[in-house]
């Protein structure tokens, strides 16, 4: 009887391992280790952003600064 119970326990343990996969959360580090299939996913592309996202505002500020400098020279 003990061997049958241990066999069922082993089978249940293997079933849980197969269901959960290889993704493991490590609480000490606070990270989730990825599954082995993460390399099969296509990469995401994030296009590069502008060096300064508010180009119109930057242009108007530069023009105002230039106008103020011209007025100081006169």
* Sheet of most strands: 2 strands, antiparallel
What's the domain count? Answer: 1
Order of helices and strands: HEEH
Query: What's the β-strand tally?
Result: 2
Specify the overall morphology: rod-shaped
Instruction: State the low-pLDDT regions, or none.
Output: none
Task: Return the average pLDDT rounded to an integer.
Answer: 79
Taking the alpha carbons of the first and last residues, their distance comes to 104 Å
Write down the Rg.
Answer: 31 Å
- Give me the side-by-side strand order of the main sheet: 1-2
Structural class: mainly alpha
Beta content = 5-15%
Q: Count helical runs.
A: 2
- Please estimate the helix content: 40-55%
Structure description:
This protein is mainly alpha-helical and 74 residues long. It has one domain (2-41, 50-73). It has helices spanning 2-20, 55-73; strands spanning 24-26, 31-33. The model has no long low-confidence stretch (mean pLDDT 79).
Summed up:
The chain is mostly helical and 74 residues long. The chain is 51% helix and 8% strand.
What is the secondary structure topology, with strand pairs?
Blueprint: H1 2-20, E1 24-26, E2 31-33, H2 55-73
Antiparallel strand pairs: 1-2
């Amino acid at each position: 009887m003990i061997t049958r119970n241990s066999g069922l326990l082993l089978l249940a343990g293997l079933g849980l391992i197969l269901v959960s996969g290889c993704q493991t959360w490590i609480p000490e580090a606070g990270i989730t280790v990825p599954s082995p299939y993460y390399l099969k996913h296509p990469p995401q592309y994030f296009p590069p952003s502008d060096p300064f996202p508010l180009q119109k505002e930057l242009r108007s500020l530069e023009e105002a600064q230039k106008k103020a400098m011209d007025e100081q020279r006169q």
